[in-house]
# Entry
Amino acid sequence: MTSDIPGDAPSAAVPSPSPAAGADAAGPLPWETVDALWRWLEREQPVGGREGLLLRVLKLSEEVGEVAEAVIGATGQNPRKGTTHTWDDVGAELCDVALTALVALRTLTPEPGRVFAHHLARVADRSLTTDS
# Structure
């Protein structure tokens, strides 16, 4: 029996995106891109101030819902619709969640890279240390 869950079967090669401005071998420098997206959203947002901040954070819930929709579509769990998404769609939606969270973090602080690195180190310390 084969599984529909990625990682359970050999995966196909994923094509590399074309390099963007400011890119290195791993892709665009994420904090430069996050900052550029934040500036664009600040210019274009119809609602600013505290309400704009709350709406930007609330956007995460919308994106997480799109992940759920893609998982349901990739597994064919809605018998009326059948299989409507792929696991690549799920991955793309997860990227949208991550990016939306990083832009929301940038909205809260002008130093999102420092804040994220500090938090990541704390999580790694408590999660990856072994009791000997």
